[in-house]
Design a protein that fits this description.
- By secondary structure, the protein is mainly α.
- The protein has a domain of about 45 residues.
- Helix content is about 65%, strand content about 0%.
- The protein has three helices and no strands.
- Helix 2 runs antiparallel to helix 3.
- It is elongated and about 115 Å long.
Length: about 100
C-alpha cells in the first residue's frame, strides 16, 4: 500500500474521530441581530463605520437581552405579595 493512501486514510479517520469535539455550540444570537442592524445603521451615518457599529450593536443587544432575561427570572422567583384584607375598625356597641 502506498504511503499516500495510508496517510489519506489516517487523516480521514482522525478527522472523523475529532469532528464531534470541534463542533461548535449552537449560537445564541438573540439580541445580536437587532442590535447589530441598529448599530450598522448608526455606524453608517457616523462616518461610514457600519462594521464597527454592527459589532458594537451586537454586543450591546446581546447584553441587553441577557439583562432582560435576568430581570424576568428574578420577577418570577420573587413571590408576589398576597392581598390580605385589613381589619375593619371595630365599633364599640356599649356606647363608651
Amino acid at each position: 500500500m502506498k504511503s499516500s493512501k495510508v496517510f489519506a486514510s489516517v487523516a480521514v479517520a482522525l478527522s472523523l474521530a475529532v469532528a464531534p469535539v470541534l463542533m461548535s455550540a449552537p449560537a445564541q444570537a438573540v439580541g445580536c441581530l437587532s442590535g447589530g442592524a441598529a448599530g450598522a445603521v448608526a455606524g453608517h451615518y457616523a462616518h461610514h463605520h457600519a462594521v464597527l457599529g454592527a459589532i458594537g450593536g451586537c454586543i450591546a443587544g446581546h447584553h441587553m437581552h441577557k439583562v432582560q432575561m435576568q430581570n424576568r427570572a428574578r420577577a418570577k422567583a420573587t413571590p408576589s405579595p398576597t392581598m390580605t384584607p385589613e381589619p375593619t375598625p371595630s365599633t364599640n356597641s356599649s356606647g363608651t
